[in-house]
Design brief:
The structure holds 2 protein chains of 2 kinds. The relative contact order of chain A is 0.13. In chain A, a hairpin with a 5-residue loop joins β5 (227-234) and β6 (240-245). By secondary structure, chain A is of the alpha/beta class. Chain A folds into 2 domains: 24-218, NADH-ubiquinone oxidoreductase 51kDa subunit (Rossmann fold); 305-389, de novo design (two linked rop proteins) (Up-down Bundle), CATH 1.20.1440.230. Chain A has 15 helices and 11 strands. By secondary structure, chain B is an alpha/beta fold. Chain B has 4 domains: 4-78, Ubiquitin-like (UB roll) (Roll); 102-211, Alpha-Beta Plaits, CATH 3.30.70; 215-274 and 337-408, 3-Layer(aba) Sandwich (Rossmann fold), CATH 3.40.50.1780; 282-333 and 429-534 and 548-586, Fe-only Hydrogenase (Larger Subunit), Chain L, domain 3 (3-Layer(aba) Sandwich), CATH 3.40.950.10. Chain B contains 19 helices and 18 strands. In chain B, the strands form 5 sheets. In chain B, strands 2-1-5-3-4 form a 5-stranded mixed beta sheet, with helices on both faces. Chain B has a 4-stranded parallel beta sheet with strand order 12-11-14-15, sandwiched between helices. In chain B, α8 (272-295) packs across α10 and α8 crosses α15 (433-447). Classes of the chains: A alpha/beta, B alpha/beta. At the A-B interface, α11, α12 and α13 of A face α2 of B.
Chain lengths: 390, 596
């Protein structure tokens, strides 16, 4: 790392499954009182790594408190956010840690079944994952612990990364978000309490169990504890997957990964925010600033932000499940509206109507997909207005 | 009893039971929140987002139809934030919707139009998206027209077809901007498992699903001096028609309806009730014959339980879903088709008319009747037995077109012949009614005595439970029916195809001991038919039901076999129930449609 302020770590990918000691984390965890594990995760400050950032310990506590005899653990590996490819790397390199995190969750909440909802495009991983799962299952049986993980494949719909659409898809239905409440912790897969966490979140749980809460809390900042795996792409000489401590300044990140001509960074993928160069210095990547599921896309001055936005909008118009009005129609209106302004069919003032529409979509859409379209739309339009019009 | 929840809506404190939605909580204090995808008969979808409200301290708005009230909530239903967002949602819906309202069949009865009018949407902000979509209109079905350019994707139809009817002919296809309500492989409705029941039509808030209208053809026939136009009216029309003409739910308008039809210019205003009574004679005899074959002749091939065949939506359902049970169906045509066959044989013979000049029109609470009239089997008179089927709604339109002040019309009587009715025929319009009418007659045939129920009201077969069961012990049978002495007749009644499906699964698995089953495709029976006035809900259907039984108890004749015109037609024309002529005109066969 040439930038001294950027703290690279190696927790997620570090190998912890060695030699005779195949399941050290799990063996330790199953001896523990589940309530203690919950307290530890709450104490660690771990927040969901998928992007929304719900406190993991709290989520687990809700599920654990539910007295249903049937509960489920689901690993959300439907990594569909544009610019995100870190879960793929995690599942390829350290799947045991994911399995371990899921098994710990099963023990904590009282679930015997876990599912990995795997992105359709990750079909190639399945044989390998099952191979490792076989070993894993044999190992936990040896430990005298009852937990079984299966893999379910998505079919390529972005919306199925939304947890309730994911559940619908798991149940063999059309991937459409459910009404909330009830939340999956109370009424999820097969209407039973269900924990759905991102791939990386499960790994973090396993690592907290291995290294302890204090070690975890040493990483990151007060509001954003721990490290985060980033998917770096775009105009960078060093695209790839990097684990960094949370709470960094965007300027430090650009200093490390930019090509010297970075004009904007899209933080958090198409559903995230676009930060222009003039705000790099004051932007913190973390829950106190801009949270991200890991996607960091860099754009240099050769890029048209209009094209970037159009690309996102086409993506959303296509990937909206189509059930709710603001998302289905709103995405189409933003798409055709931007073109109409560019072509001169609508005057520049129409941008304000579209910004208001994006705001309305944010507060009226049924699920996170439609609610987050405004993030990219408004941040790009507001920061690059001239590019949108001329 | 559920615990109580206290919340504040628009500054008013309200206490509701836990589990009550914000929408219902608001309704309880007379605050109306607009809705589109919400329908009281269906599960909550929460997808149109028109009913959004603001909760203090929460960034996102809540879909009030989907979110239960919780303690301490402070809700605003008409804040700036809500109004702005709701208006945006309505404008978005309009931008994707073919808004040529003046050319729309639902002009004046469209919920989206009403909402746009309430919000005075005079100039939409957004781009008209209709040209971007390749919308199609499916008008191949004789019953239902599906126009995707009007669809607002609320999925009421999808939920209706799945939850109420267990048919799932309509489902959601594609996603995002291409998302649409479609059929299997996007085939026309005509070519899929659709039963034509029209429950989707009854619940579509816009003009995306409407009945195929034959109003103009009927006017043409009326205006044609060479045609003799006879009209029959189904039992359930007379207790619902008033709703579309400004009268309250559950008003009996039989006399006014007859007067209106006469003023519209029909040459003879007759009654499907007449053939409903005839159906009881034929079907009752058929049931007793089957029982005799099973019990006396010990014929193992007799198909029992026997099932009613009055409801064409049900017929198409069983043809698709349970073809192995087709032999169990009564071979009786529905009252509409019995009427049609007689309207071009018996009727012209008695009235000295040429059957080729007769145009036979029926007014039905039903869209499937349009399909039924079109079936190739329904031409036993040598002509198309029923030329045009109009729904209750279409009749109301004709009455309005003719400028009649319906509520001020005098009460008039049906013409004769084929215009006489009994209470037994009237109750065909409610779930359990055919069963009750059949029992009133069959019991009397077998025992020579009236059914042992106060005032002939067979309460166990009445009511709105999805599946009803009843047993009737037969004692004191007449000598020719002594094989039934001491027997217990087990019957079942189901309405709504989801309930029919439940009963059929039991029958198909051999787990039941029924002898006779009545099935009506629509919730509540014909009174809740797909061709009835919109809207429908449990409360409205209850009022229509009460009206039907009120009409029945007010009739001088309450048993089908006492209908003098029925006696006359057997004496003059048909001979006897299940006789040769009956077989030719009043009975039919069914088609295994499981392959398509």
């Amino acid at each position: 790392m040439k930038n001294k302020n950027l703290k690279k770590t190696d927790v997620i990918f570090s190998c912890c499954v060695s030699g005779n000691e195949k399941f050290p984390i799990l063996a330790g965890a199953i001896k523990k009182d589940p309530d203690l594990i919950i307290d530890e995760i709450i104490e660690s400050g771990l927040k969901g790594r998928g992007g929304a950032g719900f406190p993991t310990g709290l989520k687990w506590k809700f599920a654990a408190m539910n007295r249903s005899l049937e509960k489920y653990v689901v690993c959300n590996a439907d990594e569909g956010e544009p610019g995100t490819f870190k879960d793929r790397e995690i599942l390829l390199k350290v799947p045991e840690k994911v399995f371990a995190g899921m098994a710990i969750c099963g023990q904590v909440i009282g679930a015997k079944k876990g599912y990995i909802y795997l992105r359709g495009e990750y079909l190639f991983m399945v044989p390998k994952l099952y191979e490792i799962l076989d070993i894993f299952h044999a190992g936990i049986t040896e430990l005298g612990y009852d937990f079984h993980i299966s893999i379910l494949q998505g079919s390529g719909a972005y919306v199925c990364g939304e947890e309730t659409a994911l559940i619908e898809s798991m149940e063999g239905k059309r991937g459409e978000a459910r009404n909330k409440p009830p939340y999956p912790v109370a009424d999820g897969f097969r209407n039973k309490p269900t924990i759905i966490n991102n791939v990386e979140t499960f790994v973090n749980v396993a690592m907290i169990q291995k290294y302890g809460v204090a070690a975890f809390k040493k990483l990151g900042t007060q509001d954003s504890q721990g490290s985060k795996v980033f998917s770096v792409s775009g105009d960078t000489p060093n695209p790839g997957v990097y684990e960094l401590e949370l709470g960094m300044k965007l300027s430090d990140f650009v200093d490390e990964f930019g090509d010297g001509d970075t004009k904007a960074v899209q933080v958090g993928g198409a559903s995230g925010f676009c930060v222009p160069r003039r705000h790099f210095e004051e932007t913190i990547i973390g829950f106190e600033g801009i949270p991200t599921g890991g996607s960091m896309m860099l754009f240099n001055s050769s890029r048209s932000m209009y094209n970037v936005l159009s690309n996102y909008l086409d993506f959303f118009a296509d990937e909206s499940c189509g059930q709710c009005t603001p998302c289905r129609v709103g995405c189409q209106q933003l798409t055709v509206g931007m073109k109409a302004i560019k072509n001169g069919e609508k005057d520049a003032d129409y941008l304000n109507d579209l910004l208001k529409l994006a705001d309305a979509m944010k507060i009226t859409s049924k699920c996170g997909l439609g609610q987050s379209v405004a993030n990219a739309f408004s941040s790009i339009v507001n920061n690059f207005k001239e590019e949108m019009i001329y | 009893m559920n615990p109580k929840i206290n919340l504040t809506i628009d500054g008013i404190n309200v206490t509701v039971e836990a589990g009550t939605t914000i929408l219902d909580a608001a309704k309880s204090i007379s605050i109306k929140i607009p809705t589109l995808c919400y329908h009281p008969d269906l599960c909550v979808a929460g997808n149109c987002r028109v009913c959004v409200v603001e909760q203090e301290g929460v960034r996102n708005l809540l879909a009030s139809c989907a979110v239960p009230a919780s303690d301490g909530m402070i809700i605003r239903t008409n804040s700036l934030k809500v109004r702005t967002a709701r208006k945006a949602v309505i404008e978005l819906l309009l931008s994707e919707h073919n808004s040529e309202c003046t050319k729309c069949y639902k002009n004046g009865t469209c919920e989206l139009q009403t909402l746009a009018a309430e919000y005075k949407i005079t100039d939409t902000t957004y781009v008209n998206l209709v040209p971007y979509h390749h919308y199609t209109i499916d008008n191949f079905s004789p019953s239902i027209i599906k126009d995707d350019s009007k669809c607002i994707r609320c999925q009421r139809c999808v939920r209706t077809c799945e939850q109420l009817q267990s048919v799932s002919a309509l489902s959601v296809a594609y996603r995002g901007e291409h998302m649409k309500i479609s059929t299997f492989m996007e085939k026309p409705m005509y070519d899929v498992v659709c039963t034509n029941c029209g429950q989707c039509v009854n619940r579509c808030p816009v003009g995306a699903l409407v009945e195929k209208s034959y109003i103009d053809q009927v006017w043409d026939a009326i205006y044609d001096p060479n045609k003799h136009v006879v009209v029959q009216t189904a039992p359930a029309v007379r207790i619902a028609l008033g709703e579309d003409l400004g009268l309250p739910h559950g008003e009996i308008v039989t006399g006014k309806m007859v007067a209106a039809l006469k003023r519209l210019g029909f040459n003879a205003v007759l009654d499907t009730d007449f053939t409903a009574d005839l159906t009881i004679m034929e079907e009752g005899t058929e049931l007793l014959t089957r029982l005799s074959q099973a019990l006396v002749d010990k014929d193992p091939n007799v198909a029992l339980p026997m099932m009613t065949s009055c409801s064409p939506g049900w017929i198409k359902f069983i043809e698709h879903q349970f073809p192995q049970l087709l032999p169990n169906l009564s071979t009786c045509k529905s009252p509409q088709q019995m009427f049609g066959a007689l309207a071009k044989t018996y009727y012209p013979q008695k009235r000295n008319l040429d059957p080729k000049n007769i145009v036979s029109v029926s007014i039905m609470p039903c869209t499937a009747k349009k399909f039924e009239a079109d079936r190739p089997e329904m031409r036993d008179s040598g002509y198309k037995d029923v030329d045009y089927v109009l729904t209750t709604r279409e009749l109301a339109v004709m009455i309005k077109q003719a400028g009649l002040h319906f509520d001020q019309l005098p009460e008039e009587l049906f013409d004769s012949i084929m215009g006489q009715s009994t209470g037994a025929a009237v109750i065909f319009g409610a779930t359990g009614g055919v069963m009750e009418a059949a029992i009133r007659t069959a019991y009397e045939i077998v025992t020579g005595r009236e059914v042992p129920f106060d005032n002939l009201d067979i309460m166990p077969v009445r009511g709105m439970e999805g599946v009803k069961e009843a047993s009737l012990a037969i004692e004191g049978a007449l000598p020719e029916w002594d094989f039934l002495e001491g027997a217990t007749l087990n019957v079942a009644i189901a309405h709504g195809l989801v309930n029919a499906n439940r009963v059929m699964e039991r029958v198909a698995s051999g787990q039941c001991s029924y002898h006779f089953i009545e099935i009506m495709a629509c919730p509540g029976g014909c009174l809740g038919g797909g061709g009835q006035p919109i809207p429908t809900n449990a409360e409205i259907r209850e009022k229509r039901k009460e009206a039907i039984y009120r009409e029945d108890s007010g009739m001088p004749l309450r048993k089908s076999h006492e209908n003098p015109e029925v006696a006359a037609i057997y004496a003059e024309f048909l001979g006897k129930p299940l006789g040769h002529k009956s077989h030719e005109l009043l009975h039919t066969h069914y088609v295994d449609r499981s392959e398509n």
